Amino acid sequence: MSSKSEYQALKGKNQELLSKVLFLEEKLKYYRNSPAFNYSNQTKDFFRILYGSMSDLVFEIDGKGTYLHIEPLLEYELRKIDASLVGKNLTDIFPAKQSEVFLDFIQRCLQSPKTLNIEYPLEIDGKIIWYEGRGTPKTKNSILFVARDITERKKIEAQLSQSNKKLAESEQWFKAITQQSSEGITVVDYKGKYVFANPAFCKMVAYSREELVDMEVVDLMKEKLPFIIEKHHFATSTPATLVRKDGSAFRSETIISPLQIGERKLLLGMVKDVSERTENRQQLINALKATAASERRFYDLFEKSGDAVLIMENNMIIDCNAATLKLFSWSSKKQVLNT
After folding, report:
1. Helix (H, G, I), strand (E, B) or coil at 130
2. Cα 296 versus chain centre, distance
3. Residue 11 forms beta bridges with which residues?
4. Residue 196 near residue 179, CB atoms below 8 Å
């Protein structure tokens, strides 16, 4: 179960148990005021079982912060608080600042017809325990205060906060990288539909991001090849000719790698415009072909020439044509090269 779902479950359980406490308090008050109420041991046991299923602390406190009542049926359950609190004031128990917070909360409860909430930490046995308190008017000058230990919930909230912080940082990193990258960055689903495109890719193909998310990869491919996804777990490089919005085409090279966000399986693409590199490569190939053709033409002229032609390097004959062999009555080039 995720931290978020745990938090929601705890919050729902908290609401449910508070409702039970308030309901039971009202029922108990009704029965106590009823002449027919027989406060027998069996009745005590009944309410003790009901309250025992809850971990809440229930007090009645007046407007000045004096404890008026602790439900006697709860006394044995409240291991940290006993009936000796009755008659004491908040200022007798808590530091001045904490007492001021509680007194302000009590006054707000007395002035409000609704149940109000407060969360506060207390140091107990050297540990910080978080409580959620709920106050509702009981009389004109007192409130019913229900306190619950929410330490586990606060831990979950802290974990959620940390997770959200890390997520926000990751989003900032992703945004910074994709926005400033000179290479095109795309995210597509397994059907080939664009999910995301960074500014560099949008500029590359002359489409806006809004236009691209309504398009598929094959819409930009000149060859109109089917978009086939292999379920690999490694990056792969894919060359393709992409078509810009104006119809012009360019050669691209895309490094594709799998990407999973939550339950969604996607593909991350790093796209390079390799038109210039392709053009330079083609120019080099053409130059090499031209050089080879020139060498062949030279060799044809060299061999077919009626004049004796010698090629020398460092005063050594490295080649000669047929006319040279005939002139010096040499039988083969090997004889000349060994001279």
Report:
1. strand
2. 63
3. none
4. no
